[in-house]
Amino acid sequence: MAAKKAARKTSSAKRRKAPSHRAALERGHHKPANANEPHLSSRPVWQGNLRLSLVSCPVALYGATDRSSDISFHLLNPQTNNRIRMIPTDPDTGPVERADLVKGYEISKNQYVVLSNEELGAVKLETTKNIEIERFVDENDIDRLYWNVPYYLLPGDKAGTDAYGVIREALAETGRIALGRVVMHGRERLVALEPRGKGIIAYTLRMGDEVVQPRDAFEDIPAARPEKQMVEIARKIIEQQEGPFEPDQFEDRYENALRDLIRRKQKGEKLITAEPVEEDNVIDLMQALKKSLKVRGGAGHPAAKRKAR
Asked: According to CATH, what is the number of the domain 37-67+110-210?
């Protein structure tokens, strides 16, 4: 009898888990057969409500980018090939448990204000659980310096899809970007909501005090204008190399070389150091421009060919 009860409990548990698993598959939150392809994570980075005045619906933010296929290395002890553990250490008392550590804000050299997790948790804003739309702006009004990380904003449940659809459609018809705020990763962030297809893309935006202004960064660059003939040659080089933005045509060649290195090392091949690439020592700027134009001149005009099709 006990065995049958245990079996029934196991079966019941599986049935309870099944709907959420199916929902994850239906929404695409699963890893594809090709592990190198980016995929939507199974867990949102934030959950709450999207609010436009009195209209509200549950939503969830998922990362729009995926770096899980990137090569990462572990630190090993070369004597044992054991992975090294990073142990928190007090310079006076030695190793300490990470769970016992507290957060401190340095107000002067070696002087800290210590804050407990309970005290930090007491700092709550409306944006902790809500994205409140505050303003609508034209996309071109947002300087690209301020665009930060993209996310997919998805409906939190089926009941909220109507309100979600209304907000998305209104954004699409007005051609506006919605601005709101959300508390994520321990800080409040400005977010821009852009309609895209059936959904909404949310970009975190950098705050004003995070961006170094161009006038400050470029202050020491001389104001003299370059020679007109040189600019004309450079413009022709640009025209020869222009084309559409096709991200699939670009790949991380360094990471590919690392993967090849790891494969060859795994097979026990003898590795040979590559010869350094010889630099074309062209010092004269006009000579370099003319030489670049000549090199590209024989390659035709790929952009024009694509447009002709």
From this structure: 2.40.290.10
